[in-house]
Amino acid sequence: MAAGPPPPPAWRHALWPPAKRAREAHNRRHRAEFDERYRAWEWRKAEHDAAEFARHRRESEGVWDDPEAMEATLRERLEEIDWPRETLIDFDLGSDISTIAVDIDLPGEEEMPDRYWGMPPKQLKLSPRRLSDTRQRKLYRDHVHGIAFRVLGAVFARLPGVQEARVSGYRQVVDPATGAERDQYLYSVKVTRTQWETIRFDRLDQVDPVAALEAFTLRRDMTKTGIFRDIEPLKLV
């Protein structure tokens, strides 16, 4: 980041001293401003390099046995995920930091699309069509299971010391007995690293998150059409 040489003086500067002095003053101000901006850039670069070094050290060494580094690394990764609907996640590491419990505040079923777009026969334009209640529930089923699958991937990829993860998903529903909102847990799954590594990640387009979670220790009460009933989540021992 170097300053370019000042432009050559115009012929009038040699004939008229005030113009020459004004040009020299302008050049001094220009140089001082450049030096100040350059020092500020160097400072920002030094701060950035230090932060990147600390992050690299945290993600290559601290994630194995430092709870603070593990928490910061996972939280940073989860915040990077661009969820299509608001999804809040909280987690706790076990006492020996080889286990983790994750709670997912899922979006509500009413936040799912209720229409899809199709092209009627003999027409060259897209038209909206209403989804049936069953298709809406299945869409929601696939979405909430996909969230758990994505979170499990982040846990095992970013925290190499974690050997077992328990992920539970809940949503807010209205209790008909009181009219107040309460948490309703939809599923709770326990997965070991060994089990997770059996998934063919080179064929993710062929992996169904619903079926994948069913292959693990899964607590869930759901009908074939995607109606969920309350469950008690698995606890982290």
Show the helix and strand layout.
Elements: H1 11-15, H2 17-65, H3 67-80, E1 88-93, E2 99-105, E3 115-118, E4 127-130, H4 133-158, E5 164-174, E6 181-192, H5 193-196, H6 209-214, E7 217-222, E8 228-229
Parallel strand pairs: 2-5
Antiparallel strand pairs: 1-2, 3-4, 5-6, 6-7, 7-8
Helix pairs in contact: 2-3, 3-4
Explain this structure.
With 237 residues, this protein is an alpha+beta fold. Helix content is 44%, strand content 22%. The mean pLDDT is 84.
Q: Helix count, per DSSP?
A: 6
Give the % helix. Answer: 40-55%
The topology string of helices and strands comes to HHHEEEEHEEHHEE
Broad structural category:
alpha+beta
List keywords for this structure.
237 residues, 8 strands, alpha+beta, six-stranded mixed sheet, extended
Summarize the structure.
This protein has 237 residues and is of the alpha+beta class. It is built from six helices and eight strands; from the N terminus they run αααββββαββααββ. It has helices at residues 11-15, 17-65, 67-80, 133-158, 193-196, 209-214; strands at residues 88-93, 99-105, 115-118, 127-130, 164-174, 181-192, 217-222, 228-229.
